[in-house]
Structure formats: structure tokens, C-alpha cells
Amino acid sequence: MSEIKKILVANRGEIALRILRTAREMNIATVAIFSEADRNSPHVRYADEAVCIGAAPSSESYLNTKKILEVCHQLNVDAIHPGYGFLSENADFARKTGEAGLIFIGPSPEAIEIMGSKLAAKQAASHYNIPMVPGTAEAISDREQAKQIAHEISYPILIKASAGGGGKGMRIVENEAEFDEQMDRAVSEAISSFGDGAVFIEKYITSPKHIEIQVLGDQHGNIIHLFERECSIQRRHQKVVEEAPSISITPAIRKEMGRCAIDVARSCGYYGAGTVEFIMDENKNFYFLEMNTRLQVEHPVTELITGVDLVKQMIFIAEGKSLAIKQDELHLKGHSIEIRVYAEDPSNNFLPDVGRLERYVRPQGNGVRVDDGFEEGMEIPIYYDPMLAKLITYGQNREEAIQKMIRAIDEYHISGVQTTLSFCRFVMQHNEFTSGRFDTNFVNRFFLPQYLNPAASEPAMQLAAMISAYFMQQKNPEKPSQNNGELPQSSKWKTQRLKGI
Ligand code: ADP
Ligand code: ADP
Ligand code: MG
């Protein structure tokens, strides 16, 4: 056991602040790092000490392993928390942190390596009784053979980058005629975005829900799960609305999914906080998708329904303590919803928007939590992910959490950049969402930019949504996606922007 006295947070924005706050509660001294673009960020002022580590591009700052380790050495830091994104899933960084005599607040480099490859993850999990999406177990090397497999599992299929993440590196293939073209694109995207051209096939589940399980493991082999999060409201395969618990699963499914998640974690000797993601079809069959070996963006909803501070647990685990929470002591209480407030224009294909936060007023009140990293007057840098904040509500039940969310969105005033707030309000009021019928196609199926017109009354919006859904269904009853394997324009733009990071 080694007590942590000083933590460096190798991240920025809301997640940096969130970790710094917990460290302060634990009387641990804190160090923030920042790039030249983030000089005025709240996380810089919040920490006991802060060091500028380089120019705005992440490759010169937040991804600069050498510089980060140097700062740790100079300031006598004894542990690094990587947050999410940036170096959080970089096994080499975790290894170098250990070699420098520091504690990496996360899993072992070996676990990160295995789970960082979707194929290696499936291979590890295959030793346990865990359902997998039908597809190929290895990277495609022989196209004709791959086509044969695609034919056997039947189209549509997905070609996925083994190293993919953040919803990138996936192509839908509707039929065999499209196979070669989509395969070429998938490989070249995988190389340009992740530096690894390995791709594989998965059956494309046409009406799926994304449900994931939070796990915590200690360094002594104890692993527990903290129930599920439902994350099916996505744009370009990336989540925008998350909630816990999921309205779609029964206690029996929850128990079995929890068992599978613990086994996936066990398959790589996992310790720390991690998330095991599943996809669930219309018949409530669920399949293992991947494991994220880090704190997840949407972790607050789990904190609110379980009362467990996940960052605090991560720190205890990193110190070598045994988990003090036992599985049978954990109980679900109430309901929590999170919306991601992105600087994006929902009426323009969710294209990232940059600019100055002219006005920024947070909602408050009972059951409302805002995790953010910006203040009024700040410029939103173009260099990083455009997420401004997360708005989280907690209620005794789902209906109350939704009502609080609508109220909180109405209190949230942001001007200077377009945000996803209006879109999220649309979601909260939509029948498909309130009824729990929605799946990952919600945005494609039910959302049209004109619904965000504030002049439109609620019943008119609902009616317009119903009409559009009806026509969409008539036009193409089976079609799972409207974009022919292509990601929307904005996503390509973002991929370009993230290149070289
Ligand atoms: P989560 O998996 O935590 O629910 P995301 O999928 O949105 O959330 O990813 C978490 C963060 O990591 C986001 O800020 C996202 O931009 C970033 N991220 C994840 N994978 C990649 C990637 N391959 N390239 C760039 N950024 C990524
Ligand atoms: P990432 O590493 O980018 O998060 P995931 O494998 O977790 O990749 O998939 C991200 C999202 O893409 C899922 O939440 C789901 O919406 C969609 N997706 C992934 N695999 C499938 C599949 N086999 N069928 C249908 N949708 C899928
Ligand atoms: Mg995922």
C-alpha cells in the first residue's frame, strides 16, 4: 500500500476539475497541466499548482508524455490521473508512468493493451461464457473469405477498426456489391485515425440499444459491478444522452449482464474503474462490444444512483487498498440522466461550432449537477473535443429526472456558440424517449433540425416527429442507416481535425 499525497491530472476541462475536486476532498495536493490555449481555464486556477506544458495542439501538450513525467518529477508528484481521452487508454503512457516510479490511477498497461484492441478483447473474453456479436474473430486478411463470412451472417454488416474509438472507424455494408469499396475506406480510415489498419466484421444489429456496465476491481482480484447505463441516444455512433438505470432491462438481464461484465474484467486481470459495453437487440439478446479501460464521460449517472464516488474509489484502488464495497451492499436508488452539452450545431448536422461564450449561466437546484470546464467570456478552443459541459439530473424515478432535466435545460443560458441543449430538450419530450422504445437510430429516425424552432409548440413538434417517422418507415422500412456507410460530414471534419493528435 502506498498512500497518494500529490496527484497530477493529465487532462483538461470538466474532467480535470471533477478529479481535482475529489482529490481536494481527500486532502491530496493537486497539480494541473495546461496548454497555451487553456491558460484561463478554471481547472488551472482550481489546482494547488499548475504548469503550462506546451502549445495548443494536444501532441505538443496533453499528449506529451515526456514533459508530463518531467513535471511530476519536478513537483514531487506521486500519482497521475489521466481522465478520459488523451493518454487515458495509452498503455505506453501507463507503463512509462510506472517505470518513473509513479502510480498510474487506472488499470495495468497489459489490461489497457488487451482491451484497447477490440479483437484482442474478444479473444480474452472468449474464455468465459460471454455472448458475442456474430462476425470474424480475427482481422480480415483474405477478402473472399471475409465476404463468405459476411454472406453467412447476412447483410447488413459492419466493418470495424480493431483500434477504433470515439465512434470512429466503422462502416456499414448493406450488401456484397458494396463490400470492396467500404472495406477500402474502413482500412484507410483505420490507418489514418488510429495508425492500425486491422479491421473485422460484425453483424450490424439494426435496432440496437447500447447498454454498458460500470465495474470496479481492486489489485487483489475483487471485482464488482455498479449496474448499467443506457446510452442509446447517439449521433455518429457517439453518445449524447445517457441514463441509469436502463428502462429496457429486467432484474434478471441486469444480473446476467453484470456477471458477464465482471468476467470480461477478470479476463484481463482488471483493476480500477472500467466499463464493459454491450449491444442489445430487439429481442433483448445482448452481446459484448468492447471494454473502455478508464473513467467514462457518463460516470456521474452511476455515482448518483449508487452513491459511490468513482474517482475516490479509483484513488483507493491505485493505493492498493481492497474494495470496501461488496456487491450485495450495492442498491440502485432513483434515476439519473446526463446530457452532453457540445459546442455543435444540431440544426447543421451537429457540426462543431467554435467561438466565445458570450453568456454562460448554469442551471441550479435540487437534483441538478453541472460538470463543466468553461466560464462566461472564454473562447472555445478548436484543438480539442467540443464538449462544454455535462448536465446531470437525479430524481426518485425516470419521469422526475426527465422533468428536472427539461427545467434545467430551460435555465441553462449559453450564447456565442451553438450547443446540443435544444436537441437534448427535444429528446426529453419525445414520445419514443419517454416511452423507452428508442434505440441507437433515434437521431436518424426522429430528428429533423426544424423541430428546434422555438416557436413550434410541443404538440406540434410531437406531431411532426410522428409524421416524419411514419414517412421514413414507409420509404424504407428496413434501412438501418440513411448514409450508405458514410459518416456524416461533421464527423469527417472532426476526424480531420483530430488527425495527428
Ligand atoms: P465514453 O466512451 O466515455 O462514453 P466517448 O466515446 O465520447 O465517451 O469518448 C470519450 C472521450 O475520448 C471523448 O472526449 C472523445 O473525444 C475521446 N476519444 C475517444 N476515442 C477517441 C479517438 N479514437 N480519437 C479521438 N478522441 C477519442
Ligand atoms: P467505439 O470504440 O467507437 O465506442 P463501439 O464498438 O463501442 O465503438 O461502438 C460504438 C457505437 O456504434 C455503439 O454504441 C453502437 O451505437 C454502434 N455499433 C457498434 N457495433 C455495432 C453493431 N454490431 N451493430 C449496430 N451498431 C453497432
Ligand atoms: Mg464504445
UniProtKB/TrEMBL annotation:
Pfam families: Biotin_carb_C, Biotin_carb_N, CPSase_L_D2
Annotated signal peptide: none
InterPro entries, per database record: ATP-grasp, BC-like_N, Biotin_carboxylase_complex, Biotin_carboxylation_dom, Biotin_COase_C, CPAse_ATP-bd, PreATP-grasp_dom_sf, Rudment_hybrid_motif
A molecular function (GO) term: ATP binding
Residue span(s) of domain Biotin carboxylation: 3-448
This protein's UniProt keywords: ATP-binding, Biotin, Ligase, Magnesium, Metal-binding, Nucleotide-binding
Region (Disordered) residue spans: 475-501
Recorded superkingdom: Bacteria
Biased composition (Polar residues): 475-493
ATP-grasp domain residues: 122-319
PANTHER family on file: CARBOXYLASE:PYRUVATE/ACETYL-COA/PROPIONYL-COA CARBOXYLASE, METHYLCROTONOYL-COA CARBOXYLASE SUBUNIT ALPHA, MITOCHONDRIAL-RELATED
NCBIfam families: PRK08591.1
Name used for this protein in its record: Propionyl-CoA carboxylase alpha chain
Taxonomic source organism: Dyadobacter koreensis
